[in-house]
Amino acid sequence: MKSTRPGKQRKRLYNAPLHKKRKWLSSHLEENLLLKYDKRNMPVIKGDTVKVMRGSYKGHEDKVAKVDVKSGYVEIEGVTIIKADGKKIPRLLHSSILLITKLNLTDKWRREKLEKGLSEETRKEIEREAEQQLKETEEQKRKEEEELKREEARQKAMEEKPEETVEQPAAEIKEEPKTEETKIEEKKQEKPKTEKKTAKKTTKTKPKKKEEEEK
Question: Which pTM was predicted?
Answer without folding.
Answer: 0.65
